[in-house]
Amino acid sequence: MNYKLIIFAMILTLLSSSVAYASNNSDGTDIDIKVIIPDRKEGVFASDKLVAGGSIEGARIVFENHGAQTTGVTANITVPDLLSVSVPTQEMSDRITQYGNTITANPGEIQSGDSVSVRIRVKPPDSIPMKTEASFHITATSDGSMTEYTHHITIIPPPSWITYGTIIISLLLLAIVILAVRRFGILEMYTTIDLVTIALLAALAGVVFRWFWQTFNDLLGPFGGLLFTIPVSALMVVALHLVRKPGTATLLFLVDQIVCMVVWGSNITVWVGWYLIEGAVVDAEVVLFRMNYADTRIACMIYGMSRGFISYWIFYFLFAPAAWKICYAEWYSWLQVGVAALGGIIGGSIGYDAARKMRSAVM
């Protein structure tokens, strides 16, 4: 089998993503108005998009004077009726008044080239039947001239069908696993040494390396995922090479999630099916590659890349909006998926070297 063609095709898939750009209206006056929502780390989270049922989000309305003279500004901000709004304490709190969903602000004089921000908090509705557009209407008055600005946002319902489908799939997969174990005596194929090996590797992944990743993740910024995907992929390859039994990867990640539930309090009841998918995909690839239990470096790299791609794609495109009510920017989501796949390739290669040495020592 030509493994290089498979890797090339998977890399091409990682590079395919779409980027959306938004433009704001301008009427040629000296005051520019910009709305930033959600007011989080720009670029990481999807702009102008809220998930129904989500928590309170910050929003920032920026008034910028691009004229040549200092000008005084007063503004009226009308927040969409679908959103609950409040005004947090800020520097100009004494110059902000709220009447329902209408906020009046008096930023005062803004010097040429400077800007002033008004911060508010909004909460999406608990539920909506379908994707809905809403608009902020802002009017700014400065030295007799008026600037009107409309900013559109999108409120999306949480993918509840995914949540309910996940519960069904999770329970179904769990039932299939239990049935297969009892019907075909799968666990009887594993020796005590095999089970101890899987338990030790799962503990390393779920406790040691997860703690290391959570502690030092921020040091590498968007590439922090490498701290977790590299060692986990390496441990998975070691398990495949040492145990050499059908279902090794699936069993490894199932034990890993049980360890995480006990140590970190992770709730895997609903998501156990998705947690098993990454292992099931790798086990299927083992069969596809003619029972190649990480016996070649290229196979190990493919296994690691598949595991990283599947697990991170599920998190950013399914788990985050469904469970956390958060929409990450599409480019950022695909970047993280690509980083995970890259970490899987590196971890797979490292795991291959480690597995061969460990197996030689055992033999």
Structural summary, described in words:
- By secondary structure, the chain is of the alpha+beta class.
- The protein folds into two domains: 31-156, Immunoglobulin-like; 159-362, no CATH class.
- It has helices at residues 3-15, 160-184, 186-189, 192-216, 226-243, 248-264, 272-288, 297-324, 330-362, and strands at residues 31-36, 49-51, 57-65, 71-78, 84-86, 96-99, 102-110, 115-123, 132-142, 145-156.
List the helices and strands and how they pair.
Layout: H1 3-15, E1 31-36, E2 49-51, E3 57-65, E4 71-78, E5 84-86, E6 96-99, E7 102-110, E8 115-123, E9 132-142, E10 145-156, H2 160-184, H3 186-189, H4 192-216, H5 226-243, H6 248-264, H7 272-288, H8 297-324, H9 330-362
Parallel strand pairs: 2-10
Antiparallel strand pairs: 1-3, 3-8, 4-7, 4-9, 5-8, 6-7, 9-10
Helix pairs in contact: 1-8, 2-7, 4-5, 4-6, 5-8, 5-9, 6-7, 7-8, 8-9
